[in-house]
Write a structure and sequence with these properties.
Helix content: 10-25%
CATH topology of the largest domain: Methanol Dehydrogenase, Chain A
Number of strands: 37
CATH architecture of the largest domain: 8 Propeller
Shape: globular
Largest sheet: 5 strands, antiparallel
Number of helices: 12
Number of domains: 2
Strand content: 25-35%
Distance between the termini: 57 Å
CATH superfamily of the largest domain: Quinoprotein alcohol dehydrogenase-like superfamily
Amino acid sequence: MKTSPLALTALVGLSAIVIAAAPEQKPEEKGGKALNEAFLAAERARESMPGAAIFRETCLVCHDGSVPKAPLTRMMGAMMPEAIVQTLTSGVMRDIGETITEEQRIQVAEYLTSPRKYGDAKAASLKMCEAPRKTFDFNDGSDGWIWGQEADNSRFVPTSRGGITKADVGNLKLKWAFGFPNASRVRSQPALVGGAAIMGSHSGRVYALDRETGCVRWTFDAAGEVQTGIVVQPWKKGDRNAKPIAIFGDGIGKVYAVDARDGSLVWSDRPEEHSSAKITAAATYHNGIFYVPVSSGEIAAAGNSAYGCCTFRGQIAAYEARTGRKLWQSYTVDTPVSQGTNRAGTEIFGPSGAPVWNTPTVDAKRGLLYFGTGENYSDPATTTSDAIIAIDLKTGKQKWHFQGLEGDAWNMSCGTADDANCPKKPGPDFDFAAPPILATMKDGKQILVAGQKSGWVFGINPDDGKLVWKKKIARGGLLGGIHFSMAAEGGRIYVPVADTNVGVKYEGDPRPGIYALDAATGNYIWEHPVPDNCGGKPLCHPGTSGSITAGPGYVLNGAMDGLLRIHDGETGKVLWQYDTTEPVVTVNGETAKGGAFGGGSGPVMKDGMLFVSSGYGYAVQAPGNVLLVFEARKGAAK
């Protein structure tokens, strides 16, 4: 069976494309022929499922990119099978659903969402809370919860909130673990409010877990995978009439606001109608408004030369928190227009892309919101791709932008046999996937620090976007360089580096590890490259692609090898580590384990407890499905 570009992008997106783009890599180089053959075997098995033929005959004509509002095949793979069946039975596609039987609707859903099975979510055994464990604590977390821990996106957790000092680090012991049912990956960072840990899952289910015991208080089912962190609006401490709202997004571009007390839906919306739009990064909150970043999967759809690449535009959407009224949308590129045809005869468009993969940074003093953008998907390249952009908090109007790399237009057709949609001079795909940090230095002055997948770190004047300093600390790559986050403690910036060999051969020596820079100058404070502990294990890499978190005098660093390390903030020395890939018994009495750390889910702390999710399971990284909860036990042996 010949594998079409559409089928490739439909199955696993970036992982498939990265492997297919480098089929001659050796297995020990984390990719290569063995993984490619395994992928192709899985794809052949999937295409032989009963629902495959039904989908091709009944649905594909609209979901191949020819109908703008129809989700692409690959995008529907992020949905729950139940959501697809509901859409075909009583939703917007019921007219099509009536032409096939109930069994066929289920077969189509299971084909699109494989390896998930219809009904598995309801069948999952959960340890539900009993009173008083299911009661929302109105005294806990009333300041709300945001992904960056502080508005400046420093990801710094003070002892007053986290309850873990540097002296406590060596005393951390596993308290309980939760294995996410029907999931092979976990990417959502929990919000720790009301005595609960609220977080999303691969299956699309959002869980509110009692922080002390891990029992389930409530669940909410989104239509697609929830990989964003959960953000919670503040409320008046102790106000039992308060109705705190928790917001998150899913893999098909919907935003949900639910009551943090019981999970009931308050409002939902899809900020962008584009069929490839999705929400992958957590929103942020300020003064009654949720700011939602929007990214897309159109970069993968471009792998099909019959697809009219590309029309998606990155954006920030602002919502009134209580009502869900959309206030404005701020786009990163102008409206795409026709750019002629590709050599397959398909009309193509541009400019496009510059998606927003990161949580915006709030600067209340200047009235600005900062965020990073990715590459353009098609020609012409713009000055707002691979850039840090500042917009007005109230209006969304752009104030300034700083571009880290010019001319970076790239999509997943580049480097493949069917590369008709590849830009004329493809770039290296060096996004600003990590949000900028608004760092405050010892003299009280502020600087915006941004890390790029290229391996460059930039110090930028927040007033006008002018470059203050720049520092090359990594070789760079598809997974970074600097990928999903940095962290800061005052003027000390912690920078994790991936530098993997995935997909492309890069010049220079890799520098996986973590590094500390002076925010004022960009100079090294310390350097801590990490050894390769993978020992030939598949889907294992030594560096850090995911999100890190700082505490007072230390930094928590989850790496792609599955190890969680805590480093001394002053020297970089490892103070404590834990292998999250080892199986653990969960609160439900089952076994689960973690995998690689990646994406926007970083370690978070509250009241002496540490919450860690592990198992990125994407882009040639090891899967997993576990939330691990540690407690700093005073006086315990180190």
